[in-house]
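Exercise 7. Predict the structure of Deoxyribose-phosphate aldolase from Auraticoccus monumenti.
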Amino acid sequence: MTLTPAQLALLVDHTLLKPEATSAQVRALASEAQQLGVFAICVSPSLVAEVGDTGSVAKATVCGFPSGKHTSAVKAAEASQAVAEGATEVDMVIDLGRLLSGDVAAVRADIDAVRSAMPDAALLKVIIESAALDDEQVVAACEAAEQAGAQFVKTSTGFHPAGGASVHAVRLMAQTVGGRLGVKASGGIRTWSDAVALVEAGATRLGLSGTRAVLEGGSATSGGY
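Solution. The predicted structure, encoded as tokens:
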């Protein structure tokens, strides 16, 4: 696959979800996002209203993050408030324990509660923690997300000890949703080659915290950014 840094940037959610992140840091993130030409920024819910102007860059946030063990009502309220404060995309974390125990119906209901709390125009991504799942569970999580009306499935929070995105998981997720949903790869993507491999596997969005370094890695091999 031949991609320029500018083309890859358009697939990126430029992300800052550290607990210690400040208002000043997320405003700097928004400024850098516009310089880099990324698709979106992704910040914690408490900072959505403090981001300021992002120009054409979308505002994304998270809910039920990072454990997914919040009640559905809390996740739904968090998503609803975030959209009211300016977020256009919400990345929610499933209840991983429910999925691992085989209660896919509960996972689907959890996603549906969040989707129902958001306006139709807002986009919902569902974080499944793919590194903690076997293939059958990855497929089940993706199917639940689609059935509940989500627009994306996403590999990882980046906080789970099992790890982040893998080429195998992204390929399986892409095959499962068959182009009907987007696939966001996130967690541990630190180099240009990592990013391109995941796009080749089927990722249509990338969650990056070290965006500039990744894009500059491509500049060295693709003729400049």
